[in-house]
Design goal:
- It is built from seven helices and seven strands.
- The longest helix is centred in the last third of the chain and has 15 residues, at 150-164.
- Strands 1, 4, 5, 6 and 7 form a five-stranded antiparallel sheet that branches. Strands 2-3 form a two-stranded antiparallel ribbon.
- α2 (98-110) runs antiparallel to α7 (188-197).
- β6 and β7 (80-91) form a beta hairpin.
- By secondary structure, it is of the alpha+beta class.
Length: 203
Amino acid sequence: MIGYKLTDRHMMTRGNTQWGEGVTHVAAGTGTALCSSDCIHDYASPELAAFMNPAHGDFASPVLWEGEGDDLVGDDGTKRGWRRYTTLRQVPLPQPTTEQGVEFAIRCALLVYTEATWVAWAEGWLSGTGRSGNAACAAANATANAAATYAARAAQYAADAAATYAARAAYAAGAAYAAYAAYTRTRINEIAIEVLRVPKASK
């Protein structure tokens, strides 16, 4: 199955694993745990890779590869794990703007967080009618007092992203992680694609 893998600028990943055009590696482990030697990670789309890099490899100058995985070990909605993987060719890595990072965070959180005041703020931000710093800070403060559930964490990340406009760092990825942990995985990749592919003028 075709996917997308991130490496550092030297075309390496954890454990000094060297990748390149037509290079194949097989996972050392035999289990099914993601984020372990049991598998080799990739992403379902270039867009998802761009948004999730800060929470996963956190490569400063990442290189994106189109690749092919064999023998799927697992899929947590933010990344996939394969027993065997081949990097085929380098492809362009999308560069999300800060605004797109905030949008991604909010839309992921909306998958799982339903508190009425926060939802009203989030929908206002997405429509462009409620983007003041004060409103974002109020939303962030409101979620800080919520129960420590994964859904509330997703909402907190999203509100913090809007309040600080720092979503190109870890906030957007954090919201997606928390949304997945709240047992919603099917929409995260679709949201990443929509945020980066829909022309701004049409929103």
